[in-house]
């Protein structure tokens, strides 16, 4: 019996354990932290061996294959030792993909991947397909494969998940954009992170498709120097493309397999150029999978925004409170600030991932009247914006940050939580941060 060791008992770890057991592996789950009660119950109920708050090296080293949760860096001692011993360390995506014949749409990028994945899933579902949404979002891919009820999967993929693939091959790959992010996990080398994102196409053949942002200089530069085997489907809001999606006279023009369809941009539920691109990417996938034009149009007009992404919470005394907790890097916050149309009190900060805040200076200068720092180390933010914004304060709790922002905001202003950082110094994750913001606003 083959031995599968799962490192990390979160959503992806427990899903992998369930699938592994179903496929006849002897499974052992090991987590350096305490395992959440809901996951512990699943492991106990399914009679899967587990341990918490430690890694038993002697047991782990007997593995035939190890699935590592995406949150565990390659630099931790146990992973280094596994690599040294030549034991394969893979991601949940790699493990689960071998057990399904479903058609896979894989979506990665520094920003926009959650919205694009959710929107793509929405259109395909409205089109009547049996489609699952997984990866970095929702129920784990492995658990859904174990249930075996989907003919299609839309997977939101982080660079960490792609680092752990060997044979994984999505039929359609989407790359939304690449900007500096997670550099702390890539030796602070941007090129390492870029190469990681492009792993999404590494096993594709000419029978597959690659949908990408042709306006992104980082993507274009990489593609000039590297071969991609799959059929290219670029999308662009600045230039015409022979195959793919572009904008003509306020309409999205989709040209696929020599057929063209048009859709007015003003009817889109999600506004802003970045959402226009997300819509173009999702529509391209839908057309490649033969979804009817009317269904695509309708889906784009009735899709609701993703939670924690430019989500309007409340208006209090004519001040609008916006939750953009999912903005965990500078580029995402750039989109948020760019879409502000009133004077803004900006709540920013958290765990810095090697951020360069200087590209935000023009927007901050134009739109931000006050900054509320929310994090344990705000030095870089203060150094960058201290001379640009007249008011700057520091807090270490969401409640305090929201109350200070409330006092600083005047009628007609916006209070924007768009941290540009990871959340792990004060919160469990970006969802926890977003929910705490919403609770604090509702309690004003």
From TrEMBL:
Name the UniProt record assigns to this protein? UDP-N-acetylmuramoylalanine--D-glutamate ligase
- Keyword Cell cycle in the entry? The reply is yes
EC number(s) from the headed UniProt entry: 6.3.2.9
Protein's gene? murD
Can the keyword Cell division be found in this entry's annotation? yes
Question: Pathway, per UniProt?
Answer: Cell wall biogenesis; peptidoglycan biosynthesis
Its family remark reads: Belongs to the MurCDEF family.
The record's GO CC annotations read: cytoplasm
